[in-house]
Specification:
The chain contains twelve helices and 17 strands. The chain is of the alpha/beta class.
Length: 413
């Protein structure tokens, strides 16, 4: 398996919204056994050691000059919003995948081949979903990590599967389960945490501001159903994506004097809502759904508005005990702290690499079988086991979070 300890840094451009870089991988051993259907607290297995890092070429959002194709590589596409409103999130995901690939290649690669990460920018736009698959296919992708946005995944995950490109999806909507596998929490695993927390506050009514995209409507519906079953009155107000102000929707929500305002949005919209809610009704409790958890939320909303809200979500890597080594390596490599989702793409690349090594091939059917057989994999995001029927993860690090005085997401008291 292990060749020489070398690293390729080959920028390339395959088409609109695609950049790539050679990276690498250190396979980790798996242990037998599985735990089904749990939301686990932060008590994960210790991560495997990380090999020494070589220098790496950082890839930004700008497309790079075309290069000749190279043989003897395993190509993994990373599809995410690399430009646009959610680009900070997407770039963190790209860096996580690059870091994993770099480590793998430094350890000899997979089956003697180097892993190359190809960035595919979908701008979180379902209209660009099909073009993303075309770009990944043109780049020669054997597998894809992503997409991140469920609205995009609903469109293109079936196309990836049809083209025999195995997806390690980053989507959470139940409409995307069954396509490949995911290290991410699904909304059926997120909603119970939200229901338990909101019910525990004793509020009698909740108004939800809901972004009409696939994930946000789906999680809002599931959480609303659970709250209603617990005797809490729930109403919803639709909020358009990308608006500069949501004052009208907030006024409509506050007209019924709710016990809590819940924002099922992505962070660009959520940060605006948090800021305007604090200015309008500082006494009304604020709850933000998981897609708002991003360092940019705090930057854009301001510390006071961010601290006014409680969040469901996944702690950023520095808050995960299992991601200590990942965080150290990420900071060393990229000279910045990791965000929320880069450790999930990091783990996804490692899972793919271990499965390819086990299967001895990148053949779709063999790779799918090997990935879904993953059990108790020691990742940066904790122990990873997949349900074979859905590809969903059995244990997920879903928590209730708040923002500290340092502007970071931490576990709520």
């Amino acid at each position: 398996m292990r060749g020489g300890s070398h690293f390729l840094a080959i920028p390339c451009f395959y088409g609109v919204g695609v950049v790539c870089i050679a990276g690498s991988f250190q396979p980790q051993s798996n242990k037998s056994g599985s735990i089904e259907g749990k939301i686990v607290k932060l008590s994960f297995l210790k991560p495997a050691g990380i090999v020494a890092l070589a220098s790496i070429l950082a890839v930004g959002a700008t497309a790079l000059p075309a290069q000749a194709s190279h043989t003897g590589e395993i190509v993994i596409a990373l599809e995410a919003p690399l430009t646009g409103d959610q680009s900070n999130n997407g770039k963190d995901q790209l860096r996580g995948a690059q870091l994993a690939a770099k480590q793998i290649n430094a350890a000899g690669g997979v089956m003697g081949k180097m892993i190359k990460i190809v960035g595919v920018d979908d701008q979180a736009d379902p209209d660009k979903a099909k073009a993303a698959v075309t770009a990944a296919k043109k780049a020669g992708a054997d597998a894809v990590v992503g997409p991140y946005n469920s609205g995009v995944g609903v469109v293109n995950l079936p196309i990836y599967v049809k083209n025999k490109i195995f997806p390690m999806r980053m989507t959470s909507s139940l409409a995307t389960q069954g396509y490949g596998a995911t290290t991410q929490p699904m909304n059926s695993q997120i909603a119970p945490a939200e229901i338990d927390y909101i019910s525990s506050t004793g509020v009698k009514s909740v108004v939800m501001l809901v972004d009409p995209s696939d994930y946000t409507t789906s999680i809002a519906a599931q959480t609303a159903a659970g709250l209603t079953a617990n005797g809490i009155a729930v109403t919803q107000v639709v909020v358009p994506e990308g608006s500069a102000s949501y004052s009208d929707q907030i006024a409509q929500a506050l007209a019924s004097n709710p016990g809590m305002l819940y924002s099922s949005t992505y962070y660009p919209e959520g940060s605006v809502i948090a800021k305007e809610l604090l200015a309008t009704a500082p006494a009304t409790p604020c709850f933000m759904g998981l897609a708002n958890v991003d360092p940019s939320f705090v930057t854009e909303a301001g510390l006071a508005a961010a601290q006014h809200c409680t969040f469901s979500g996944v702690p950023a890597a520095p808050q995960l005990p299992s991601a200590k080594a990942y965080t150290k390596a990420y900071v060393k490599e990229f000279k910045k702290k990791p965000g929320v989702w880069g450790d999930f793409t990091y783990d996804s690349v490692y899972v793919l690499a271990a499965a390819i090594e086990k299967a001895g091939t990148t053949n779709y059917k063999a790779l799918k079988k090997a990935v879904l057989a993953t059990k108790n994999y020691k990742g940066a995001t904790g122990s990873i086991t997949f349900k074979k029927k859905t590809g969903n993860r059995t244990e997920v690090p879903v928590e209730i979070l708040e923002v500290s005085n340092k502007g970071t997401f931490v576990l709520a008291d």
